[in-house]
Amino acid sequence: MGTDFRSDTVTRPTQAMRDAMMAAAVGDDVYGEDPSVNQLEAVAAQMLGKEAGLFVPSGTMANQVAILTHTERGDEVFIHQDSHAYYYEGGAAAMWSGITWNLLDGPEGTPSPETLRKSIRPKNIHHPTPRLLSLENTHNRAGGAAISLERLIPLIDEARSYGLGVHLDGARLFNAAVALGIAASDLAQPFDSVSICLSKGLGAPVGSVLIGSKPFIDRARVFRKWLGGGMRQAGIIAAAGLYALANNIQRLEEDHIRARHMAHALSEMGYQVMLPTVPTNMVMLDLPVPATEAIDQLAHEQVLVGAMGPQRLRLVTHLDIDDEGVSHALNVFRAFAERIHA
Ligand code: TLP
To answer: How far is 101 from 82, CA to CA, in rounded Å?
Structure first.
């Protein structure tokens, strides 16, 4: 096992988190009787300044339940073409919700208000009903870019002017809040629904929370059950989420510092590094060789990285990456740079 930069999903629970899981009070959550799940849902909702939360097994289920809750079959959902809910969720929204996507473009995974305006078609029997705008913050395929409220608000205002609901895939919302230096509740405020992941930079083994108004979450709870996401004594894992929200948010700054350090060092070595306006815990590199070749060679030196395109690598810093892991990886990348430029 090497230093694993493939994703912040690879973290393993610390002893303190495991202790919290062992000690969790539990009950049957499908009856609404698991005190730890109830507490997690309340704490997450309160941290995001909204009424209610719904604990789900994964970020994918959080997004899918959100889309099911916002839409009717055949409705149109506007989304950036690089967003996780479209790009990495296997067409699930077409399958479960029966929606039609309207794919938008724009820098850092975020369309401009003009781009949205141009994609809205007039109300007409030929056109689907425009229903939802789905955004992502931080934006994964945009290199972990944190998107500021100054960029989001005009876009959301535009969406509201057509009566669209607005969902945020906030799998890494706390990374965005820490990087932008604002409260997560301020970043969540303009959205009707927000999904957050506990199992990424926050270091919990499993789980996401979908957050919104009380009526929205009451309806979402039905869809979670339909998808098989009613989890009984889920307090065992909710306790890890509660521990993560209480202890692992401020330390995300350390991951961002390490990623920034790596980005600078790698670009000094001659790598083409993609730097978002506000970076967080990811580094993206464009290589002159196939990503698969780099991944194999780096893995021989115990540095695990992932591909984000045929010649693009992604490195993610997280709870289980320390300074030693970073300097080992930089040494391996330095040697690799010499090899590919030789
Ligand atoms: N992202 C994973 C992969 O699926 C790409 C990763 O390693 O980054 N929203 C966003 C923005 C995500 O990045 C992810 C996971 C999800 C949703 C889905 O979360 P899970 O894996 O819990 O279903």
So the answer is: 12
Domain spans of the chain, in order of start: 3-8+251-341, 15-247
Q: Locate tokens 């959902």: which residue?
A: 77
Count of positions (residues) in the chain:
342
In 3D, which of 174, 214, 216, 337 has the Cα closest to residue 266? 337
Contacts of 338 (CB under 8 A, 6+ apart): none
Residue 264's alpha-carbon distances to 199, 261, 274, 278, 283, in angstroms, are: 27, 5, 11, 14, 10
Closest ligand 1 atom to Cα of 58? 22
Measured between alpha carbons, how far is 233 from 28 in angstroms, rounded to an integer?
5
**The domain over range 15-247 is classified in CATH as 3.40.640.10:** yes
Task: Give the pTM.
Answer: 0.97
- Residues within a 6 A CB radius of ligand 1: 7, 9, 58-60, 84, 88, 136, 140, 169, 171, 197, 199, 208
56 is written with which tokens? 């789900």
Mean pLDDT of successive 10-residue segments in the chain (342 residues)? 91 98 98 98 98 98 98 98 98 97 98 98 95 98 98 98 98 98 98 98 98 98 97 98 98 98 97 97 97 97 97 98 97 94 72
H/E segment holding residue 282: strand 282-286
